Automatic annotation (TrEMBL):
InterPro entries: TatA/B/E, TatA/E
Lineage of the organism: Bacteria, Pseudomonadati, Bacteroidota, Flavobacteriia, Flavobacteriales
Keyword Nucleotidyltransferase: no
Protein's name according to its UniProt entry: Sec-independent protein translocase protein TatA
Transmembrane regions listed in the UniProt entry: 6-27
Organism: Owenweeksia hongkongensis (strain DSM 17368 / CIP 108786 / JCM 12287 / NRRL B-23963 / UST20020801)
Molecular function terms, GO-annotated: protein transmembrane transporter activity
Assigned GO CC terms: TAT protein transport complex
UniProt KW keywords: Cell inner membrane, Cell membrane, Membrane, Protein transport, Translocation, Transmembrane, Transmembrane helix, Transport
Family listed: Belongs to the TatA/E family.
Subcellular location, record wording: Cell inner membrane; Cell membrane
Membrane topology listed for this record: Single-pass membrane protein
Record-linked HAMAP family: TatA_E
Gene behind this protein: tatA
Amino acid sequence: MNLASVMLGMIGPWQIVLIVAAVLLLFGGRKIPELMRGLGGGVKEFKNAIKEDEDTDTKASSSDKK
């Protein structure tokens, strides 16, 4: 068992509601979509960087075999 599965098992629906309410109070309804867009863009860049790194590793290992 990893930490994420243990933590998800400990968080109930009322805790999630409380977290969402706190985020709404802190950031407001207008700022949240902008934050999510930024988060999504960061995740997209991260995935692209990993993919590019895997591609360069694959190319390097295939050129080593020749």
